Structures are given as structure tokens and as C-alpha cells.
Amino acid sequence: MPLCHPYFVVPVDGDSAIASLTKRALPRSGRPSTSTTADNIDKIRTLVLENRYMSVREFAQECDISTTSAHGSLSDILHMKRVAARLVPKD
Fold first, then answer.
1. Looking at the domain 38-89, which fold is it?
2. Is pTM beyond 0.70 here?
3. Which InterPro entries does its entry note (predicted)?
């Protein structure tokens, strides 16, 4: 049997291609994310409103999360970006 990418494998046992792709798209089991909880997002939001000149590293230290998680929370969840060393909402 030749090796190929799992998305190109023909489904077996009567599964449709859509159903087999949907099964792969389900969230993985394991440890849940603890950095993007509602408490951390609210804490970052209040810190931004108190001081827009804080660095991402300072936000991460205050919330006890990684710098990458703090940056992701600011940009992806809170939709903020840096403009002239100040955090402002994205347009």
C-alpha cells in the first residue's frame, strides 16, 4: 500500500469524505489552554485600559502567561495593535 497524505486516503467502512475530514477537524483531547481564559483576557483588557504604554512582556508577567500567549490575546482576541508604541483597537 503506497503512503500518502491522510487527507487523500479513500474513506473505508462507508464513511463519506466529508465525514472523515470532519472527524479529523475535531479538537484534540489533552490539557486545555489556560492562557486564554476569560479571567486572563479581562485582566489584560483592564491593564491595557489603565496603561496603554505597557509592553507585551509586562502584560505577560502581570498575568503569569507566556509572551506569545499575551501577544495572541492582545491581537487576536482583543483586536488591538501597536501604533506609535501605544495599544489601540484595530480598525
1. Arc Repressor Mutant, subunit A (1.10.10)
2. no
3. Transposase-MT_Hybrid
